[in-house]
Amino acid sequence: MKYSRATDYALHTMLFLVQATPKETMSVHKLAERHDVSPTYLSKILTKLVKAGMIESLPGMSGGYKLKSNWADISFLDVIQAIEGTASLFDCSFDHGPQCPIQRIVLQGESKMESYFKSMTLADLAKEIK
User: Fold this and answer.
1) Tens digit of pLDDT at every position of the chain (130 positions)
2) CA distance linking residue 124 with residue 50, whole number of Å
3) DSSP annotation of 66
4) What keywords are annotated for this sequence in UniProt (predicted)?
């Protein structure tokens, strides 16, 4: 299984915003430079994080992006789903339904993975990097 590069950038951007201090505003150019990525590409990712309510966008010359006040409660799963969506990673081609043992096992595995990612928050990450 593989998450998109956008998810990687989203998670690293959130970490960078946590490290930079949660109340500091960062321009898209500074964030893009930090990750050596196109500002246009990163802007699309940041827009998804804004829509998900994880960061806010402040307009103007001194504007940019900053974490919302509830940043510590944001889980890895929240960030992943903001970028990737909530669809299952596995799509059974044979449509056997819930009685399909392959589908059942894969969905149980996904559920365990989602539980783990949901249990890991930005606050946990902040503690680990200090």
Assistant:
1) 678 999 999 999 999 999 887 678 999 999 999 999 999 999 999 999 999 999 999 988 878 999 999 999 999 999 999 999 998 888 778 877 778 888 889 889 999 999 999 999 999 988 887 6
2) 21
3) E
4) DNA-binding
28: CB partners within 8 A, 6+ apart: 39, 42, 43, 46, 64, 65
Q: Which fold does the domain 5-86+121-129 belong to in CATH? A: Arc Repressor Mutant, subunit A (1.10.10)
Tokens representing 63 are 């504007």
Structure tokens at 124: 């946990």
Report helix, strand or coil for 4: coil
CA pseudo-torsion sign 52, 125, 6, 37: positive
CB 35 within 8 A of CB 28: no
- From CA 100, how far away is CA 85, in angstroms rounded? 24
Residue 82 and residue 31: Cα distance in Å, rounded?
18
Cβ atoms of 26 and 19 within 8 Å: the answer is no
